[in-house]
Amino acid sequence: MASGAPQRRLSLDGRSMWPLAPPCRAILAPPPPTGLQRGDLVAFVGTGPDTIYVHRIVGHSEAGWLTRGDTLVAADPAVPESAVIGRIVAIELGPLRLPLPATGVLARAQRSAGLAWGRLAPRLRVLWVSRRFS
Prior knowledge:
Elements: E1 8-12, E2 24-29, E3 41-45, E4 52-61, E5 64-68, E6 84-93, E7 96-99, H1 105-132
Antiparallel strand pairs: 1-2, 2-6, 3-4, 3-6, 4-5, 6-7
């Protein structure tokens, strides 16, 4: 997505970003001029045909961005910069719209909260599954 490209909507139907992004619509925009940061939600092209993933950036390596769904235990394989098609700037749940700003205090707070939830959610999931089947 070129830097002057308009925003567009994506339908999300997976569970890896629950509860921030349950089945809903996400607003995708080009990466900000300041670049992507740890904690940003990004859309990237997957290995399958017509597959787009929306996951959180948890780090960076020489091979690309390290991403992970908030409820998943393991990170994705490194995502090359060329596979990133944009940054999620808002989540729409029916008439509600949750903006995800790129800069400022609110952006830092949302990134921190998202990263914290991303560390906690997999543990809660494992605990829930272990108690459910014990």
